[in-house]
Design a protein that fits this description.
The chain contains ten helices and 15 strands. The protein has helices at residues 72-79, 86-92, 95-98, 102-117, 119-125, 140-156, 160-174, 212-215, 262-273, 280-283, and strands at residues 4-9, 13-18, 27-31, 35-38, 60-61, 68-69, 178-182, 186-192, 201-202, 208-210, 237-241, 252-253, 307-310, 313-316, 322-323.
Length: 328
């Protein structure tokens, strides 16, 4: 974190701020996930170790029938690390797991990983916008968390107090987790960070973004799978600058799809994070048009993401395609 520092703002709480002028393309932060899972909806086409995503179902399916791998090397390494240990494999093969919804299955697998990583560590480092004390039966996120925590606790044979702590940790993760995406905004994985990456606050006019293209491999293992034995959760996820940031300014990512209209962005933020965005793009109606201030930063591919500009080269952070570097 050489070019950013952690500071507290009265309105937005803890955040990350530039310690010097930062140029487009610079690395802002990189962190290995505390826990990382393949999303249930893409599991058959996404390697459970290296997260390589194929066009069709992968060749190797685990005996639990809920995890796939692109190679024997990835399968063997996952089983010997925290990415797919025997107790998780046994839990995912039960009828109780199959009864859960897709979202609940994602949370259940995350709960199994958090139990190994340390639930208390999550409780000590992540905040929640939905206190567990409320326990609202009308909140679908709480309902999913409760179901996943109950399953994970039974699979791990945890006593009831530990189940409550696990549910609290999952709830905190639900509003701090990173989704990692492949081209077309297909969510491939969920990752949890507790050091720096969870401190990036939101703006619909971001000056930073997650480099999804670098985080989701496009080349099949096993040639790169050895890296995933270190820390058991793969290489660090990187956040980079997408437009110049002056010294002292807050470094901001977007929590929603930047191409969505303002009403859909606000609805998504309210549902998941319980706040509304008041950035310049949301406040100024002129900026909400298709050809707005984000246009020079956008990948030319329809429905894609932001361009990562590094010198004279621009690359989409989602699909990896080259774009045009537009001058001011």
């Amino acid at each position: 974190l050489g070019c950013v520092r952690v500071a507290r703002d009265a309105k937005s709480g803890l955040g990350l701020y530039a310690t010097r002028p930062i140029a487009s393309g610079e690395l802002l932060a990189a962190e290995k996930p505390l826990a990382k899972i393949v999303c249930d909806t893409t599991a058959a086409r996404t390697c459970g170790l290296c997260f390589f995503q194929a066009d069709d179902d992968l060749p190797i399916r685990c005996v639990c029938r809920n995890q796939w791998f692109c190679s024997e090397a990835c399968s063997d390494l996952a089983k010997s690390t925290a990415l797919h240990p025997p107790e998780e494999c046994a839990a995912l093969g039960t009828a109780g797991f199959l009864k859960l919804s897709a979202d609940e299955r994602d949370l259940a697998r995350l709960a199994l990983r958090l139990h190994r990583a340390g639930v208390q560590h999550v409780l000590d480092n992540l905040c929640s916008v939905r206190p567990m004390s409320a326990k609202s039966t009308n909140d679908p996120i709480y309902a999913a968390v409760a179901a996943a925590a109950s399953f994970a606790s039974k699979a791990l044979r945890l006593p009831r107090p530990d189940q409550d702590a696990l549910a609290d940790a999952l709830l905190r993760c639900s509003c701090n987790q990173y989704g990692l995406y492949a081209p077309g905004w297909s969510e491939v994985a969920l990752a949890i960070f507790t050091r720096h990456l969870h401190l990036f606050n939101h703006s619909c006019y971001p000056n930073a973004c997650t480099d999804h293209f670098a985080a989701v491999p496009r080349n099949q293992g096993p040639h790169d799978s050895a890296a995933y034995a270190v820390g058991a959760h793969g290489p660090p996820v990187e956040v980079r600058c997408v437009r110049p940031i002056p010294a002292g300014a807050q470094v901001l990512q977007t929590y929603v799809h930047t191409r969505q209209p303002v009403n859909r962005r606000q609805a998504a933020l309210d549902h998941a994070y319980r706040f509304s965005c008041a950035c310049e793009r949301c406040q100024d109606d002129a900026m909400c048009e298709e050809d707005d201030v984000l246009h020079p930063l956008m990948c030319p591919a329809s429905g894609c993401s932001l361009l990562l500009v590094d010198g004279e080269r621009a690359r989409c952070v989602l699909c990896g395609e080259d774009g045009d570097v537009e001058s001011d």
